[in-house]
Amino acid sequence: MSDCRIGFYVHHHGRGHAYRTQEIIAHLRGSAFVFGSDLSVFEDFDSQQLISELLPPDTNQTASHTKDWPKVLHYAPLGIPTIRNRVYKLVRSFEKYDLDLLVIDVSVEVALLARLCGLPTVYSRQHGYRQDAAHTTAFRSATSLLAPYPQDWEEPETPKWIQDKTFYAGGFSRLADQELSTNEAKKRVGFSSHQKHVVVMTGFGGEEEPYQLLNETARHNTQWQWWVLGPISPSASFPDNLHYLGVQSNPYPYLKGADVVIASAGNNTVMELAQIKAHYICIPEARPFDEQLSKARLLARKNAALVLPQWSNPKVWKSHLQQAQQTDTNALHSIIADRAAQQAAQHIKEIARVQRNT
Question: What is d(CA 104, CA 84) in angstroms, rounded to the nearest whole number?
Fold first, then answer.
């Protein structure tokens, strides 16, 4: 039997959806077809089997911002001609590539479009309140649901039928194959072994507002060296113990060398910090469906991170940093599963194989 033909729809917000998709595709045999309106993360992906289709955007400045669409949809604005082209390109690709299955990470609208086209779907789940009509419809229409976390990290209020339909692959990250001791990592990035180091990690899906107190916080905590990873611009004047590293293609040695990491509760962030067993201060950011707040509650419940509702007064950070070093790094690491990406890929292949032979 020839290899199954599996498509992946990748949401453009942040980079976690793309990184997760890359890890799964790396364990597939045969071609993988990736669709999305921002596929820049895949430009350096070393795979002969990857075929990508860049989709037109589904937003513009003149669109209707009224939310009068049916409750089974999350996003259906009027007056954006590129959406028609976007939908046409998707549907044309379903036929052009003769797909057996579409993995969706994530979009209710694409899930329902695929179902209308008779294309089976695997829908990637995320934390947060997702029992609304749109998510419920997408979940029911899917052939299978995929959770990139273990079942004991499931939210207790999740209905049984959703859990029963979910394949719990366990957590995984792009840092899985890297191994350095903390001291080796410190040496690699030039962290002094005689000082304490805190890394503030920002992502592409967040905003700079939570970090506006960084300068003052660093000034009040000079016994720590502060390092900022990510797309945040330094202010005009900042203290000598505050360092801006910008975007790093491989954040691993900085995170591994840190004594404490401060970050949001984005899925990709949590997985990377869990992989390295970081002492983690979590400041969840506002997201639809309270995704990060939900994950933060789970982290706090397991003492896997010190969770703060917002960036605190700079004068109390000495206590926060001390508390963070008492968090349970093994509890945090428990979200990671050995061979999770391989297991996710295997589940997807099995679903596709069954669909092809049906």
Answer: 19
The answer to the question of residue 177 being in a domain is no
CATH number at residue 123: 3.40.50.2000
Distance CA(136)–CA(293), nearest Å, equals: 20
pLDDT tens track for 161-194? 999 999 999 999 999 999 999 999 999 999 999 9
Higher per-residue pLDDT: 249 or 110: 110
pLDDT tens for 270-316 read 999 999 999 999 999 999 999 999 999 999 999 999 999 999 999 99
CB 333 within 8 A of CB 15: no
Quick check: 50 and 25 in contact, CB under 8 A? Answer: yes
Q: In whole angstroms, what is the distance from residue 135 CA to residue 161 CA?
A: 13
How far is residue 288 CA from its own chain's centroid?
A: 14
- Domain boundaries, position 348: 6-172+338-357
DSSP-derived 3-state class of residue 32: strand
Can you give the pLDDT at residue 205? 59
The candidate with the shortest Cα–Cα distance to 44, out of 22, 27, 29, 24, is 22
CA dist list (Å): 209 to 232, 310, 339: 10, 10, 37
DSSP state of 290: G
User: Does residue 161 share a domain with residue 61?
Assistant: yes
User: Same domain, yes or no, for 259 and 316?
Assistant: yes
> Could you give the number of structural domains in the chain?
2
Q: What is the pTM of this model?
A: 0.93
Residues, the chain, total?
358
Strands (E), 78-203: 101-105, 121-124, 144-147, 166-168, 196-201
Residue 198: strand, helix, or coil: strand
Q: Are residues 297 and 342 in the same domain?
A: no
How far apart CA 120 and CA 138 sit, in angstroms, is 11
pLDDT at 1 over 50: no
Phi, psi of 64 (to 5 degrees): -65, 130
SS3 156: coil
